[in-house]
Amino acid sequence: EVITSSIKKIADFLNSFDMSCRSRLATLNEKLTALERRIEYIEARVTKGETL
What we know:
Structural class: mainly alpha
C-alpha cells in the first residue's frame, strides 16, 4: 500500500515534470524561431546594402 502510493506519487511528479518541460521547450522553440526569422530578415537587408 505504502509502496504503491509512493510509486503513484513519483509517476504523478514525473508526468507533471514532463508536461512542464515540454511546455517550456515549446515556448523556447517559438522564441528561437522568431529570432531566426528576424536574423534572416536583417541579413537580407545587410546583403542588399540597405540601412537598418
